[in-house]
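User: Please predict structures.

Assistant: First:
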Amino acid sequence: MRKIVSVLSAAVLTLTLCACSSGSSTSSITVAGSTTCLPIAEIAAEGFKEETGIDVLVSGLGSSAGIEAVSAGTADIASSSRGLNADEQDLGLTPIVIAHDGIAVIVNDDNPVDNLSTEQLRDIYAGKITNWKEVGGEDLGIQVINRDEASGTREAFRTIVMDGTPFDRRSAVLSGTGQVRDVVSRSRGAIGYISLGFVDSLNAKTSVKAVSVNHVEASEKTVASGGYPISRDLYFFVKGAPSQQAQDYIDYVTSEKMDKQIREAGFIPVTNDEKGSE
């Protein structure tokens, strides 16, 4: 089933991007992939368009779909909230780190629990802990919200938190960051995980809070220092040598002129040393 879903996602993406670009390599750039990376890619697209007159067409269907698209040649750049997995290592893709991010564990604002250990999180997502009273909360069942398998955020959470322990198959599986935040905001017993940059930035009359993990608050400062335990890099991937305009867009995203916007979106810009090493 996973393979069928991946093929369908790639097909939808191909139709969408091809319809927009009509195979032209001079009038536009296509960026496809992570919903987490969307704010960065879209903000940069606006500024890049103003400076160069070149359109950047940004699509968010998940990290895996973006990687498939750039590998197949239907996108110029893949955006991803995870690194390449074992099956993708031989695709000939070059990674570019565009920002750093923390993965915030969110609960309903009315939930009195404000800290969870990584072990408790692992047991919650494995289905071993099922009631909030087991972690110091109310006598209330835990509604576990997970992301779909195409999500880079899920893959990062699986690697960092689950550490080889399988997810509980009874968890609700949602396809987007906004959906996770919305469900958690409406359910007192729910728990989910989203990019730190989206905890307060999505519209809404939604009420969620990020809990501390191992007594470390999720913040730009703790992610940058390495103190927050659930953090990751955000990437662009290209296949082979990118076109000049695609390279110019990548350079724009990683330039100092984007640092303020990246911070305002809730992420952490790459340092000058990191930019120089890429």
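Second:
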Amino acid sequence: MPLSSKARVYADVNLNRPREYWDYESYEVKWGDQDDYQIVRKLGRGKYSEVFEGLNITNNEKCVIKVLKPVKKKKIKREIKILENLRGVTNVICLEAVVKDPISRTPALIFEHVENRDFKELYHTLTDYDIRYYMFELLRALDACHSMGIMHRDVKPHNVMINHSQRKLRLIDWGLAEFYHPGQEYNVRVASRYFKGPELLVDYQMYDYSLDLWSLGCVFASMIFRKEPFFHGHDNYDQLVRIAKFLVQRNCFSI
């Protein structure tokens, strides 16, 4: 039987909220009109979605269209509910609408558009002040979502959009995000390997918001030391070994 653990901060946020705030399985999605949006070009793809630059033809403004691949309805509702709750939160990508193709029934999420430069190019150009500024902005985003009882669970450079010319940062991709409840056991198959906290690597399921802070630290280390990823394990076991070596060695550049 694993030891029980409870978050040191914001532990009871969802206990003090009405059930409809976190009960995404009972959530009724309010679908918008798909014809209000037009796909312009493909931006990329992930395990659960394809992403396009789009145009809102009602106001001629750019947007981002995330077309979801077939997954369980519960997972889709969880992402939408969390994004609805986080609408307007500091430095969190804003969900503008949710639409569904009337024939294929494929859902798509419509987001605000943010110009972004590839982090592999950007991080090498950042000054010490820039790094501290973006660290602070990302911390603001995470503290805001944690204070609302939500864990992101996939913090990594690919999910941090930075428009450097406007000094704008947005935390994106809330597909793995989850509501925190003390004592609940969660899936450990979250986050990308290089940014997984030690608890995930040892299959400890009773984790909390601190999971995001480990990932955040890995992102910051990548920025500061110009090393991406900072912990480069070949598998989960090797990832844990590299973390352990780093923590016991004085010379952090030896890994």
